[in-house]
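ARCHIVE CARD
CATEGORY: sequence design from structure
SOURCE FIELD: tokenized fold
FIELD CONTENT:
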């Protein structure tokens, strides 16, 4: 149910043109395909495998947003620094340089 609401809500927030351009980008194609395949596996009653594949697709699609989130987390006292470093590390795929521009 959450997957369906996510897929419905994203075009409502961003607009259909920006949503299609985001998911249709060449750099995001593997993330889009793995996310879609994970949703299909969940619908065909393979929830654990589908969730893991979908999670990988989410990291490929939305990993660079974690770097943006890290900027906000840095302001939290005591735990902000370590959590922000972890988010930047995960968001850049374990140290791989991102540097991609976002369409939105």
């Amino acid at each position: 149910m959450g997957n369906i609401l996510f897929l419905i809500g994203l075009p409502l927030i961003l607009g259909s043109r920006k949503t299609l351009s985001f998911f249709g980008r060449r750099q995001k194609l593997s993330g889009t395909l793995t996310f879609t395949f994970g949703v299909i596996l969940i619908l065909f009653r393979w929830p654990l495998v589908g969730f893991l594949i979908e999670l990988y697709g989410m990291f490929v699609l939305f990993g660079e947003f974690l770097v943006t989130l890290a900027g906000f987390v840095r302001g939290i006292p005591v735990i902000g620094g370590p959590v922000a470093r972890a988010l930047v590390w995960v968001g850049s795929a374990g140290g791989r340089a991102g540097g991609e521009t976002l369409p939105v």
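CARD ANNOTATION: Residues 94-99 have pLDDT under 50 and may be disordered. The chain has one domain: 2-91.
SHELF: design records, drawer C
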